[in-house]
């Protein structure tokens, strides 16, 4: 169970870091720039802890897939970025893939 918490923290940290990267305006704003660096360091550290129990391909697929969806939502909410129908369908397929991996794959440590 702790492994899944590590993965969740890695995902959230990466989403915060990526969202802050946009706000850093090319690293010209100190606060968002520092948050970007700290977020990525924490994300990769927590991902490394996750890899003790979950195979690297599975962990990375979950980390990147969920991160893509969450960053897209943050971009929509905070930055007013538009999500058209193909983008929403694509994110739905990513979520479906994450669910299939978690619910049906024997590769995922439960």
UniProtKB/TrEMBL annotation:
Record-linked InterPro entries: EmrE-like (IPR037185), Small_drug/metabolite_transptr (IPR000390), Small_multidrug_res (IPR045324)
TM segment ranges: 33-51, 58-79, 85-104
Coiled-coil intervals, chain numbering: none
Major subcellular location class: membrane
Bilayer topology term: Multi-pass membrane protein
Compartment annotation: Cell membrane
Superkingdom field: Bacteria
Pfam family, one: Multi_Drug_Res
Entry keyword set: Cell membrane, Membrane, Transmembrane, Transmembrane helix, Transport
Family affiliation: Belongs to the drug/metabolite transporter (DMT) superfamily. Small multidrug resistance (SMR) (TC 2.A.7.1) family.
PANTHER family given in the database record: MULTIDRUG TRANSPORTER EMRE, SMR FAMILY PROTON-DEPENDENT DRUG EFFLUX TRANSPORTER SUGE
UniProt protein name: DMT family transporter
């Amino acid at each position: 169970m702790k492994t899944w918490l590590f993965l969740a923290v890695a995902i959230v940290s990466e989403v915060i870091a990526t969202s802050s990267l946009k706000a850093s305006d090319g690293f010209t704003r100190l606060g968002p720039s520092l948050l970007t660096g700290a977020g990525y360091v924490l994300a990769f550290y927590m991902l490394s802890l996750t890899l003790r129990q979950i195979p690297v391909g599975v962990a990375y697929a979950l980390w990147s897939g969920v991160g893509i969806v969450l960053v897209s939502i943050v971009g929509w909410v905070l930055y007013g970025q538009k999500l058209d129908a193909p983008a929403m369908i694509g994110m739905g397929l990513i979520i479906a893939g994450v669910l299939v991996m978690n619910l049906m794959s024997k590769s995922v440590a439960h």
